[in-house]
Specification:
The chain is mainly β. It contains 3 helices and 22 strands. The chain binds 6-O-phosphono-beta-D-glucopyranose (BG6). 6-O-phosphono-beta-D-glucopyranose binds at residues 71, 94-95, 168, 192, 213, 245, 247, 272.
């Protein structure tokens, strides 16, 4: 649908407007009393969120691509129907196809305090080539004093399927070496730097001294990102999610990524609301599964 039509059908004057975003991709700009956000129809990708009176919460790489068929480096990529390189074929796209395709606007609602956009995709010839399953996927993004995201998958086929998924949230930090993440104390995780190893988090917070890539499993706990340098705490609460990925590529891996700006790695950390590894989700025919993340400062 053209931007003009999108604005006519779904625009909320002063609150939700559709226009050209980076790379000419269609973007919804959501402006409420509690905060503002930008959401691309490409990938249903939240590219920015800023609570009123605060610094931006989400990180976006200066080297990011903004092009059809390419992932965006930053914000909140939607990883579905698989996480990482666990797709059905050797050349299955990393983190699934949901972040690479154009989504449709289903509805917009709200008022000056808080607004919600619902984006959707469903199985089609393109997705069936990558993953022969019948599904509907809905991403509901609510912007206000918090940023809430809800990823809902429905099995519209005759056979059960199994998915892994993530709301791969990139947070802006003062310096990765000075921040701490709490909430995962005692949780089991798969450390995927080098050979995958199962370990257990100790009693203390997570601190960062080198490349960190961990999939915490069997945990529904909220996390708090404590950033004394920025003088803020970000809380990531969730439901329908039993995995949390914590990631920073550090210097060497960042330098190998073509869509990642030079020395940006100290300024970000990912805390991803997910269902992966032990927590893959089986969805029976006619059934649905919902995973929610709620991000707020404080
Ligand atoms: C993280 C993974 O979730 O995503 C990392 O744990 C991976 O291993 C990172 O490097 C980025 O993936 P991509 O496909 O966006 O480059």
């Amino acid at each position: 649908m053209e931007r003009e039509q999108l604005n006519k059908r779904f625009g909320l004057p002063g609150v939700v407007a559709f226009g050209a975003g980076p790379g000419g991709l269609t973007q919804a700009t959501i402006t409420t009393a509690g905060g503002t956000a930008t959401v691309l129809l490409h990938g249903a990708h939240v590219t920015g969120y800023r609570p009123t009176g605060q610094e931006p919460v989400l990180w976006m790489s200066e080297g990011s691509w903004f092009a059809p068929g390419k992932p965006v480096r930053g914000g909140v990529p939607v990883c579905f129907p698989w996480f990482g390189s666990t797709g059905p074929a050797a050349d299955s796209p990393h983190h699934g196809f949901a972040r690479l395709v154009q989504w449709r606007v289903e509805s917009v609602r709200g008022d000056a305090d808080q607004a919600t956009i619902v984006l959707t995709i469903a199985s089609d010839d393109h997705t069936r080539q990558l993953w022969p399953r019948e599904f509907e996927l809905r991403h509901t993004v609510t912007v206000g004093e918090a940023l809430s995201m809800s990823l809902d998958v429905r099995n519209t086929g005759a056979e059960a399927f199994t998915i892994t998924e993530a709301l791969h949230s990139y947070f802006a930090v003062s310096d990765i070496r000075d921040v701490a993440v709490t909430g995962l104390e005692g949780a089991e995780y798969i450390d995927t730097v080098g050979e995958a190893t199962r370990l257990r988090q100790g009693d203390g917070p997570i601190r960062f001294e080198s490349e960190t890539d961990r999939a915490y499993v069997n945990t529904g706990a909220p996390c708090v990102l404590d950033d004394p340098g920025m003088g803020r705490r970000i809380t990531v609460a969730k439901s329908g999610s039993l995995s949390t990925v914590v990631w920073n590529p550090w210097s060497a891996k960042a330098a190998r990524m073509p869509d990642y700006g030079g020395d940006e790695w100290p300024g970000m950390v990912c805390i991803e609301t997910a269902n992966i590894h032990d927590n893959a989700v089986n969805v029976a025919p006619g059934e649905a599964h919902t995973m929610d993340a709620r991000i707020r400062v404080g």
